[in-house]
Amino acid sequence: MNGSTSINRRRFLMIAGGAIGASALMCGGVTILTNQTPGVNYIYASCGKENTMQTVLVAYASKYGSTGEVAHAIADQFCARGMRADVRRVEEVTDLSAYDAVVIGSAIRMGRWLPQALSFVEKHVGRLQQMPTAIFTVHMLNADESEASRQARAAYVQPVHALFTPQSEAFFTGKMDIGNLNFMDRLIAKMVKAEDADLRDWRSIQAWADQLALA
């Protein structure tokens, strides 16, 4: 990962906090802009045959769509193995009774899983504890194998582990598309001198999906 995307978590949070504070002092019109997110085409997809022996839900939380694309790639690998898979945003799922296994993924925002992803786990934790469940995280920081990065990654998913223990978990580097960010996120990106980058390793994503034994 290049220097523009390897800023440590503490510095990122300090800069983000400063940006949020600065935005609060701006006029009302600009404040409205900070809450606007450009249109994102979130993935809603299914693959595999209806009469397969195993149906898997790949549920994801994404702000700008990158995590949904990762979820789609994971589902495609399941279907290539003869399963059926549904790709859904966590907000769209109300019932897990149709599924034999679940994979849950989230982007990272301010060093945490997105709130809707954690809410999904909290709502369905009783069922998730009783079925094969794996999780994945898509992030731009803390991608190396230093002790600091490993601790940061563990902190990302600590609230999930406090609720249940997933069968498997993975961390994948994500995508930065500054032109697609809302006002606040563009401001933060400029302050940390971030650049457009797509660091998703599709082979690693597919390999992880292939090794999951969701039975």
Describe this structure in words.
This protein has 215 residues and is of the alpha/beta class. The chain has one domain: Rossmann fold, CATH 3.40.50.360. The protein has seven helices and nine strands. It has helices at 9-24, 28-34, 66-80, 115-128, 147-161, 183-191, 202-211; strands spanning 45-47, 55-61, 84-89, 101-109, 112-113, 133-139, 168-173, 175-176, 197-198. Strands 1, 2, 3, 4, 5, 6 and 7 form a seven-stranded mixed β-sheet that branches. Helix 1 packs across helix 6 (183-191). The longest helix has 16 residues, at 9-24. It is globular. It starts with 8 loop residues before the first helix and ends with a helix. 33% of the residues are buried. Residues 1-7 and 11-36 have low confidence and may be disordered.
Extended strand count? 9
Which topology does CATH recognise? Rossmann fold
CATH superfamily: Flavodoxin domain
Unreliable spans are 1-7, 11-36
Give the oligomeric state of the chains in this entry, treating copies of one chain as homo and distinct chains as hetero.
Answer: single chain
List keywords for this structure.
alpha/beta; Rossmann fold; 20% strand
Topology:
Layout: H1 9-24, H2 28-34, E1 45-47, E2 55-61, H3 66-80, E3 84-89, E4 101-109, E5 112-113, H4 115-128, E6 133-139, H5 147-161, E7 168-173, E8 175-176, H6 183-191, E9 197-198, H7 202-211
Parallel strand pairs: 2-3, 2-4, 4-6, 6-7
Antiparallel strand pairs: 1-3, 4-5, 8-9
